Amino acid sequence: MSIQVRVRHRSLIAFILLLGSSGCEGFDCPGDSCGSRTGSSGPVKLLTYSESQMREWRTIAVTPNLATCFNFAPTHFEITPALPAGLNFDQSTGRISGTPQEVLGLTSFEIGAYDGNTFLVKADVSIVVFADVPPSGLSYQPSAVSVLQGGALPSLVPSFTGAAESFSVSPALPAGVAINPQTGTIAGICSGPEGVTQHTVTVSNPIGTAQADVEITVLEAPSLEGLLVASQGDLTLDVFGLRNVGFAPIDAE
After folding, report:
1. What is the pTM of this model?
2. Nearest to residue 161, comparing CAs of 134, 126, 125, 132?
């Protein structure tokens, strides 16, 4: 009986090893994505691109996106789905280049590296192509705001048409307030000196720019040492001060 158990145990081990060493081809093969192979098959094979996310503009040439292979030398590359019109894929090097001729929403592309007919590894590259028009109609509502020293500025969110690549502002915003260079939102905890300042925000893309003006008034923070409050018992004013439990009359026990 024990001999049969040992034989069955050895057969099971051999079957598991056979499964582990079996080949697998195709982009969706489990364990074949970049960096997922380890151990017994040798050094990890890895395919990367200089830009994994390409933000491009119609009619403007892209910076060539280059493939880099680690621990293997492929014979050719394949991409799916096909690139939009104007973009080129070099099957011998995996390079993406060219000048987009059509607008494309954010799309993911799978690039596979092969050694003959044998699939090695893959990489994913996402591409979006914006229309070749400048941004326009930039505005902030409201365009003028007030904030106390040490207080939070109500977030100013821009509206505009077209696509933006970056936002900038001149002159500099009050201390503690900043503009998000990707979204154009202006926010922060204001620590700047009191006064009124005017600022011009510029939204840009490779085709052109648009501008809008905003005004920020910084008000001196009120003192919290005392506060006059109408007395409930007579026609006099009571002086309230900041206590541990909040505002209370100065002469309160």
Report:
1. 0.65
2. 134
